[in-house]
């Protein structure tokens, strides 16, 4: 294969400007496609987890300082038979990391998938530590199976035992958005209430009405007064915002894919004379069709390899140092898919070029030049 590389370089050098333009177009397309694929993938996973956890049956419980209203709400929850779920959030070891404390009922009612470790064992003592699950970035600092003391700006928070890592960094939002993507989050189960939550960032309550017949009809007055607020309503509103956020990247990816196809056609047309003549000379010198095909496909490989390699540090930069990376699931799946699309498009072009070789008319084709 090494002996073919000079011929590949010769082909690319014959159309230097077009080769560079095509590489740049593929580079932009790959980066946009990775972001677009990440958004689509995370949207699909969010919806899947939403359905698995039956969140359409969940209601937010209004927080009120009015004792009479609070008593009415608590009595209604008790009478309905709905299971109450509570959330408390405090600052973690830095300003970017929150620690959310879920009640046992949250873990019982919500599907939480793990990529590493195991789910919290609610009957285990953990030697006085608070069991928790962490996101991907936090797991780099706090390893699964380890016990760590966490401090924040207010002082000592407590000791935490890391049971596992949350898959795809998808956590149930206690703030009106279904599941959301967060690479810097800890969720814990404080069974014995040993953590001081005085400086809480927020306290939320929800109820799961799954299996309760005619809940909406029976408690319509509470829903009308916003004491019980349908989780589904806020989820659908948030989904519209998510769609608006992803559309620019979809447009960019499609646009540059179209430009790349246009560039490919231009590259094929401009290089056709040179390629046809070169293939004719190869045939006259006794080269086999598979040899010519190998050179053509190595040219394709080079045109894809350059933007594929250059895009890696750019994608990593987007993933780690931008706002997009904080809210978008950027992974290898989108990268390999976009590179495969580029390679497939170029491979078809190369296959057409090889298929046009006609040994019976090869001398005439060379004479034309």
Secondary structure topology:
Elements lengths: L4 H10 L1 H37 L5 E4 L5 H14 L2 E9 L6 E5 L1 H6 L4 E4 L12 E5 L1 H6 L5 E6 L2 E12 L3 E3 L6 E3 L3 E4 L13 E7 L6 H4 L1 H5 L3 E3 H54 L4 H33 L1 H5 L4 H24 L6 H6 L2
Parallel strand pairs: 3-10, 5-7
Antiparallel strand pairs: 1-11, 1-12, 2-3, 2-11, 4-7, 5-10, 6-7, 8-9
Helix pairs in contact: 1-9, 2-8, 2-9, 2-11, 8-11, 9-11
Task: Describe, in plain words, how this protein is organized in 3D.
With 369 residues, the chain is α+β, with helices and mostly antiparallel strands. It is 55% helix and 18% strand. It is built from twelve helices and twelve strands. It is elongated and about 95 Å long. The mean pLDDT is 79.
- Main β-sheet: number of strands, strand sense, barrel status? 10 strands, mixed
Nearest-integer average pLDDT: 79
Topology pattern, helix = H, strand = E? HHEHEEHEEHEEEEEEHHEHHHHH
Helix content: 55-70%
Cα-based radius of gyration, to the nearest Å:
29 Å
Distance between the termini: 28 Å
Spans of at least 5 consecutive residues whose pLDDT stays below 50 are: none
Oligomerization status of the protein chains: single chain
Number of helices: 12
Describe the global form.
elongated
